[in-house]
Amino acid sequence: MGIAKNMANKAEAAKGSMKKNFGRVTRNRSLQAGGAVDQARGNSKQAGVKLKNTLLSPTRGINRAEVVGAVFGVVLLLAGIFLGMPVITTIGLVLVVAGVVLLVMGSMGRPTFGRRQY
Question: Which end of the chain is more exposed for a tag (fewer CB within 10 A), N or C?
Answer without folding.
Answer: C
